[in-house]
Every structure is written in structure tokens, then in C-alpha cells.
Specification:
Layout (H helix, E strand, L loop, with lengths): L15 E2 L8 E5 L3 E5 L2 E6 L2 E5 L6 E5 L8 E10 L3 E9 L5 E8 L13 E4 L6 E4 L2 E2 L1 E2 L8 E2 L3 E2 L12
Amino acid sequence: MNRQPLAPITPQPGQESVWDYPRPPRVEATRDRIVIEFGGVVLLDTTDAVRVLETSHPPVYYVPIDAVEGGALEPARGQSFCEFKGMAGYLTVVGPKGLRAEGAAWYYSNPNEGYEVLKDRVAIYPSAMDRCTVNGEVVQAQEGDFYGGWITSKVVGPFKGAPGTLGW
């Protein structure tokens, strides 16, 4: 198991290094246009998002729950705990013709102090969707099945999430 991260990639002009993101994570508003497609339809198209930025992780975008197409989110089993944000609940994303992505979204109904802006917002795993974009650029999903970061050309790593990176 690789407990030491690879050397951080030096960002070029207009890029950010995830190794410059803080721990505990920072939440910042963004006016980036976020579009999520599932089952061949657009489930979300908004410029009302916040990014959670944490050391070694690509940004996770949280969007207003009510900006997601009606009926596209259903409660799912499971919870997880973040030492910073609190207890997360999960949602299943529902597309046309009964298409389902079980537990593909998460939210904080009662976020910890400092993360209150996440209330009434949801994050969606890009790996479970047909396509997610930030300002028209197709997102690459963060490796692994837990963190849910959105990788664009704006961010450089290496990124936590792949096998062997748990100890970073």
C-alpha cells in the first residue's frame, strides 16, 4: 500500500493543485455552470453551486436539491460520517424508464458548524451518471467508490481515491 503521495503536479496558469486545498475542507460558492445527464436526459442545469475543497481531493460540487428535476431523487439506504461535515444521508438517482443509480447522491440534512451552506444541497457521483460537465467541460470521476470528486482540466493532482491512496 502506497502511504506516500506522488509528488504534486505543478499547476499551470489557470489551474489549481488539490495539494493547495486546505484540511479541514473549505466550502466556496461558484457560478460555474453544472450540468448532470442521466438516462439520456438533463437532470440538472444550474449556476447555483458550492465546491468543497479538501487536500488531495478534486472538488465536490453541491447543488440545490430543488434544482434537480422533480422525482429524480429518492431516499436510499446508508449513511456515512465526515469528521468535518457531519452525518451524510444517501439518495438514489432515478432516470427515465425506471433507470436507477442506487445511492449515487448524498446530502447533509444537519451539517456541522462551518458547513451550514451544504444544507438543502446534494452532491452526485459523476461516475454514476451518463455525463457531468463544469462550464461545458466533461468531468472525469475521482477514482474509488467513496469520495465523488469532479476532475476537470482546472485541477491537478495526484488525487486521493485510487487503490493505495487511503493513507494519504
